[in-house]
Design goal:
Length: about 270
């Protein structure tokens, strides 16, 4: 195809999905550019340890992210570090506008924009974000060395991050809304065996309490009895899943109730 400034493919998002797409596209000799607004590798950058990636018994998330990126770039994949602010689908080609004003065109666009940490949406959460409230243990755990922290959630992320924080903090309270963790069996075993982790079953955080010095407590509600109680803590780490970053998805695209695009086998 003649080089008319139109790419064959623009990939939006440089997480594992986008970088994998980049590897395949470059191997297929497609004129491709990948746009990433932060660090390549996506959410895995925030993982202390990855132990279920075939071929690596143990690897840090940041190291794995670097390897993904190096692999894609070894094929010459161009990566632009910018935010995409607009995607305009077209019949001949699609237009992509970047935050710096650059406009790109491509015959195909892959949206691999991942997700953002889900919020609890309780009083205190927005006001004290960064002052004792975090969505990333690897980034902020250090500040809670020998302190008490609350981790909210019951999935793999909450379990893994609790284990990471338990090595640093004086005490980790894992607050989960049910009486059973969602996390995989091995992680569950490790969490339950860690004497520094105290699971607060059937509990939800209804408020994060803080003053000028930062977080000092959470208000918990028992999901079975409705009883309220205060739990003293120096910090709150929230790992209750991710919401898809779907703002660039063109209008009219079929999505499910959680905001994920409904796909088929193609
Ligand atoms: P997740 O699997 O969706 O788990 C979210 C957890 O938060 C669930 O336990 C859920 O409770 C709880 N939750 C959701 N909304 C809540 C709310 N408003 N208030 C209180 N609790 C709430 O999310 P994730 O743990 O981030 O994992 C995301 C995906 O990545 C999963 O597929 C996971 O397997 C994967 N992952 C894998 C690994 C690994 O393999 N090592 C590590 C990290 C993540 P319920 O259980 O009651 O629904």
């Amino acid at each position: 195809m003649p080089d008319n400034g139109v790419h064959d493919l623009i990939i939006i998002g440089g997480g594992p999905g986008g970088l994998a797409a980049g590897i395949y596209a470059m191997r297929a000799a497609l004129k491709t550019v990948l746009i990433e607004m932060a660090a390549p590798g996506g959410q895995v950058n925030n993982s202390d340890s990855v132990e279920n990636w075939p071929g690596d018994v143990h690897i840090s998330g940041a190291e794995l992210a670097t390897k993904f990126s190096q692999h894609a770039q070894s094929y010459g994949l161009e990566i632009i570090y910018q935010e995409v602010v607009e995607l305009e689908p077209g019949l001949d080609y699609h237009r992509v506008k970047l935050a710096n004003g650059t406009r790109l065109q491509a015959h195909a666009v892959i949206l691999a924009t991942g997700g953002s940490p889900r919020k609890l949406n309780v009083p205190g959460e927005e006001d004290y974000y960064g002052k004792g409230i975090s969505y990333c243990a690897v980034c902020d755990g250090f500040f809670f060395r020998d302190k008490t922290v609350v981790v909210v959630g019951g999935g793999d992320t909450a379990a893994e991050e609790s284990l990471y924080l338990a090595k640093l903090a004086k005490k980790v309270y894992l607050v989960h809304r049910r009486d059973q963790l969602r996390a995989g069996a091995l992680l569950q075993q490790r969490v339950k065996a860690d004497c520094n982790i105290d699971i607060q079953w059937n509990s939800v955080v209804t408020e994060i309490k803080a003053n000028d010095d930062g977080v000092y407590a959470v208000e918990l509600k028992d999901t079975q009895t409705g009883a309220q109680r205060e739990l003293a803590t120096d910090g709150v780490f929230i790992f209750i899943g991710f919401d898809p970053n779907n703002t660039l998805v063109p209008a009219g695209t079929k999505m499910n109730a959680d905001g994920y695009v409904i796909t088929d086998e193609k």
